[in-house]
Specification:
Elements (H helix, E strand, L loop, with lengths): L2 E5 L3 H11 L6 E4 L2 H10 L2 E6 L2 E2 L2 E2 H10 L8 E5 L5 H6 L4 E4 L4 H11 L3
Parallel strand pairs: 1-2, 1-3, 3-6, 6-7
Antiparallel strand pairs: 4-5
Length: 119
């Protein structure tokens, strides 16, 4: 089963997501920026990406084309995973399969991952 890659610059988010997805037996890997995400993607079988929009100096939507250009991520579903609900339409128009607004309900996160995870 592919891993869930979280691209987020808040370390506590990975712990929370890992805890929420534990019942699914899903491996969770973390990256905090574009370069980290590309490196993690090259070393793991990624089945889903949760992408935050606010990554410090980087904007998640701005780096999306570079992420999709990586062979290991080209056919992987991306889910917007952010507090910026105002960018929901932008995310979906740019090919994200879903949008999870933070703070999130653990059941909603699990349901979204189960629905879109490439196995």
């Amino acid at each position: 089963m592919g891993a869930v890659l979280i691209i987020d610059d808040e370390p506590g988010i990975a712990e929370l997501v890992t805890w929420c997805l534990d019942p699914l037996g899903v491996k969770v890997v973390l990256a905090s920026c574009l370069n980290d995400a590309l490196e993690v993607a090259r070393g793991n079988d990624i089945g889903l990406v949760l992408l935050d929009f606010n990554l410090g100096e980087e904007d998640g939507m701005a780096i999306l084309p570079e992420l999709r250009a990586e062979p290991g991520l080209a056919n992987v579903p991306f889910v917007a995973f952010t507090a910026y609900d105002t960018r929901r339409n932008e995310a979906l128009e740019n090919g994200m399969v879903s949008f999870i607004r933070r703070p999130f309900a653990s059941g909603d996160l699990r349901a979204t991952v189960e629905l879109h995870l490439v196995r």
